[in-house]
Design a protein that fits this description.
By secondary structure, this protein is of the alpha+beta class. The protein contains 20 helices and 14 strands. It has four domains: about 170 residues; about 140 residues, no CATH class; about 70 residues, SH3 type barrels; about 160 residues, Alpha-Beta Plaits (2-Layer Sandwich). The radius of gyration is 43 Å and the shape is rod-shaped. About 30% of the residues are buried.
């Protein structure tokens, strides 16, 4: 029998509702099987799912009598099946079999209708509770209330022959069983419920028990809905006071987990009110399982809400690496919550984790080898998030892919390419790949080679170079210190001038605007010099050819001559004082441009 289910969905309400319905169906099926899942014959009682498991010892008793809790549960399980021959094995008595069985019947009645104690809290240790003030081999499991007062129910640890010591109902307690049986008051159930409902059984359960299950479970859900409806306004007021942010959406998502907790509390109340020890153990276990499911669901919701709150905070921009870290931490936290919840549920079901851990030690290597790529991608993602070579929102080049980083996950990183396709790059490959992050640059390079015709005279070249330098020094969007314009060589059909500078932009669209402005002004400079750009063609001379514009060429030559006579020829470069005077003198944008009019 499965006692619970683990919520693996992170946010879908329909999955949670399906789990709750599954729990409800399992509860009804478990009740139909007598709350013991047929109990599988003479297996040790402390190792069944319905009752908390006894702590494993080297000398484990076949009947589960190695611990105080195992003795009580084992006795009640045998008595529930009317197997009083087996029930006598839990009594420290030497009476004949008929009288011993009669004693067991009365003890069962006492435990069902007069016993006051929490069976799940009974000791699961072979030595019992050594701090209860009793002698080491005696254990008090609870009291019985009668008309004349209270009686203690005791267990004694007894060793018969060479057999291991076991816990049995004390002989001192058994002597008082007839007296307790006679003095025991009729319970509310016995006084008000018809005997037919109490004595008639279906599938080893009384009709009254079936009625209690059929009415109790819907009632628990109804109470959960009412309590949640009443608590949410109070929680909303407190949340607004401490967070100073809208909380309606988050609280709406917390309503489901709160209802699950209330249902668990209702099941726990049923365990306290149940007259049967086995039923009390069963409903207590159900309450614990449902509470763990509610806790898992609640923590998953809180992680989601916290993640959304951090992403919406102004101090964490969308392109920041903190977003990737938060998402990675969120996913790891959710996985940890589910694992811890599963461990708690399995532990409550009595699964031996010593054997599980041993199996993990043997199978861990095989799993590690099988999941080598998965682990490689996981640690690769952690390295990417910690080193921050790229962040969510960055424009980067990863191998042959260029685009914007949309998400850094546990297994892969999602990149939106310039073609608007999405590429998933495994984190293991990405962590060892050379990454080029364009978003992290502080300036963008402006580097062009200008090809001029061979008819251009040296003074024209000097004029063009000088004016382009002046343009770069004066332009407010160009970094002056590293800007350079040089005559770099003779090409097959042209003179070549290299223009090298950095533009004060970090995004591409504004850079294109500045580049366009610079190129247009360079075209104007070449035109003003009387020169022209070279064509990638071969020229056959049949006669002497003149300059394209003789007047402009003469004007450029005259300007250079005046620079030479005045000692102001700016070669190999302008003087530092001249550069300082020209710095940021040019009007940008150009007066005839639309940007200038907007400005």
């Amino acid at each position: 029998m499965v006692r619970g289910a683990i919520i693996t969905s992170e946010s879908e309400m329909n999955v949670v509702r399906m789990v709750l319905r599954l729990v409800l169906v399992m509860l009804v099926l478990a009740a139909a099987t007598g709350l013991a899942a047929a109990q599988k014959g003479p297996m040790p009682a402390a190792k069944t799912v319905e009752a908390p498991a006894a702590q494993e010892t080297v000398t484990d008793d076949p009947l589960g009598r190695s611990t105080p809790q195992g003795t009580v549960v084992g006795f009640m399980r045998a008595a529930e099946k009317d197997d009083f021959e087996r029930a006598v094995e839990y009594l420290d008595t030497k009476q004949p079999a008929p009288r011993a069985q009669q004693l067991a019947r009365r003890l069962r009645y006492i435990l069902e209708w007069g016993f006051s104690a929490s069976v799940p809290t009974l000791s699961k240790k072979p030595e019992g509770d050594l701090d209860d003030g009793l002698r080491p081999n005696r254990e008090k499991i609870g009291v019985v209330k009668t008309e004349s007062g209270k009686y203690d129910l005791l267990l004694d640890r007894v060793q018969k022959g060479s057999d291991p010591p076991v816990w049995l109902f004390s002989a001192d307690t058994l002597k008082l069983v007839p007296q307790m049986y006679e003095e025991l008051d009729y319970s509310w159930v016995e006084q008000n419920i018809p005997k037919t409902l109490l004595e008639t059984k279906f599938l080893r359960r009384s009709l009254w028990g079936w009625i209690a299950v059929i009415l109790g479970i819907p009632l628990a859900f109804l109470i959960a809905w009412i309590v949640t409806w009443a608590l949410l306004p109070l929680i909303k007021v407190l949340a607004r006071r401490f967070t100073q942010r809208p909380v309606e959406d988050g609280l709406a998502r917390l309503a489901g987990p709160i209802r699950v907790f209330v249902v668990a509390a209702a099941f726990y109340s049923i365990s306290l009110l149940s007259h049967s020890i086995l039923a009390s153990l069963y409903w207590g276990g159900v309450a614990q399982t449902v509470a763990v499911i509610g806790a898992i669901w609640l923590f998953l919701r809180l992680i989601e809400i916290g993640m959304e709150w951090c992403e919406g905070c102004t101090v964490v921009p969308a392109s920041s690496g903190r977003v990737a870290i938060l998402r990675l931490v969120s996913k790891l936290s959710k996985g940890l919550v589910v694992i811890v919840g599963a461990v708690i549920i399995f532990y409550g079901a009595g699964i031996n984790f010593t054997a599980v851990l041993t199996g993990l030690g043997v199978g861990g290597l095989a799993v590690a080898f099988a999941a080598q790529k998965t682990l490689e991608n996981l640690f690769g993602g952690i390295m990417i998030v910690s080193d921050k070579p790229i962040r969510v929102g960055d424009f980067c080049q990863a191998g042959e892919y260029r685009g914007f980083v949309e998400d850094i996950g546990l297994r892969s990183t999602r990149i939106r390419t310039l073609k608007r396709t999405v590429v998933f790059v495994p984190n293991g490959q990405l962590s060892i790949m050379s990454l080029e992050n364009f978003t992290m640059r502080d300036m963008i390079l402006f580097n062009h080679n200008i090809q001029l015709r061979y008819e251009t005279t040296p003074d024209q070249l000097r004029y063009i170079i000088t004016e382009i330098r002046r343009l770069l020094y004066e332009h407010p969007k160009v970094e002056t210190q590293s800007a350079r314009v040089r005559f770099t060589g003779f090409k097959q059909s042209s003179f070549e001038i290299e223009v090298f500078a950095y533009v004060f932009e970090i995004t591409y669209e504004p850079y294109l605007e500045v580049q366009e402005d610079l190129l247009l002004r360079i075209v104007e400079i070449v035109e003003a010099s009387g020169g022209s750009f070279a064509f990638p063609s071969r020229t056959v001379y049949v006669s002497r050819e003149t300059a394209v514009d003789e007047a402009k060429r003469n004007q450029a030559v005259e300007t250079v001559r005046q620079w030479r006579e005045q000692g102001k020829l700016p070669f190999p470069d302008f003087a530092p004082q001249q550069i300082a005077e020209m710095n940021n003198k040019l009007a940008y944008p150009a007066p005839e441009s639309t940007l200038f009019k907007k400005k």
